Amino acid sequence: MKLKTVVCYSLSLPDQEPMAYLRLLAPFRQAGIQLIDGLQNGYAVPDRVTEGDVVVIQRQFPQRFNEYQEVVRAARQERKPLVFDLDDLLFFLPEDHPDRIEHSFAPALLPMLQALLEADVVTVSTQRLCDVLMDYNDRVIVLPNYFDDTLWSLKPPQPKNPQEESLIIGYMGTNSHKPDLEYIAPVLLDLIERFPQKISLNFWGTPPPLALRSLQQVRWTPVGIRSYPEFAAWFQTQSADIFIAPLVDNLFNRCKSPLKFFEYSALGAPGVFSRLDPYEGVIRHGHNGFLATTKSEWEECLRSLIEDETLRCRIATEAQVTIKEHWLLSQNISRWIEAFQTAIRIGSRRSFQEDDPTLKMLCSINQQLFEAFQALTAQVAEQSQTIQALTAQVAEQSQTIQRLESEILNYVLSRSWRMTRPFRMISRMLKKVIQR
């Protein structure tokens, strides 16, 4: 059976967020496969399962557990293969990761684990992520994040004379990378002290570390763009002479993809990257980029690029050659077609609740947690309405008090009130005499 249509249930699809664009929209469009959004007005439509050859569940969608269950039941009933797509190891977020501190994904983790266990096929973005998840599902396929050559163009490297204008060292990333930037901050501070007139730092997205924010050589540009195509168009209007991509060494970061290497290289600038899995599989140290582990290695690599214009141009050129030869989406689209054709061949393997007692128990746990979450949400909504009503009542009483205070003040300050004061005093005295 030839793959023609895919139905996807993703919370990121409507806004074309990076995950949905890179892993669904762009690949299927280039492959000539119709992608059907399984959501309408923000809610899942299980009946759309019938329209696709394959059903894709992406990332944290299972957090909407009742909707997720309905989609799974529909897929099993229609014998449609169920694919769970995951691009980050959210099950192992580091303790200092902002998303863990804010509990951003906590409600979704157990439902996602259920989706991981019961999917017919799991698609992931890296081999390291595949190796970790194979312990939970033996049908994991690696579909890397590629460079979408219909969205990005490769800008030729532009030499710059540091004697005439400062070199820009750039970093682009979301707030989730704060720990990574904190790690590299001492190196950047040392470089600014060593080259105060020669370099400046530009941060796009996440704010600079506190140690750097007050320096005149540091610039920060907030980025609130959710759509990946819009972001790509905007970022290609920016510029830097050197890019950095630090990652703290942990399992979560080791499972990431080399996307920053592609996006940085598109702007025609060389980069220094952490010597971890995402970049070790793409970068040849000293040829198409630099890899660093220790702070001294980071400083050495950056100093080499700062001081050598020829080296900067050569590294940037080689990085773009690497992308052209190995990482263009248009040249690798067959991997996506093969992966989903594999899902069709495997088919819908079973009704998980009947065959697997562990999954049956996990489903029951998730259902109870979802019901508890709904009850808490309803309670919070009710309390919120009560607070709003009390706030309105207090505001109304406050206006009444202000009006009375104003009337009293006007009365006290009025001329007639002052003129009649002696008569009021005599009247009170006479009343006391009569009462005796």
Helix/strand/pairing class, anyone? alpha/beta
Largest sheet: 6 strands, parallel
What is the 3D shape? flat
Helix % is: 40-55%
Q: What distance lies between the first and last C-alpha atoms, to the nearest angstrom?
A: 112 Å
Q: What strand order characterises the main sheet?
A: 2-1-5-6-7-8
- Note the beta-strand portion: 5-15%
Please work out how many helical segments DSSP would assign. Answer: 18
Radius of gyration: 31 Å
Per DSSP E runs of 2 or more residues, the count of β-strands stands at: 14
Please mark out the parts with pLDDT under 50 across 5 or more consecutive residues, or reply none: none
Average pLDDT, rounded to a whole number, is 90
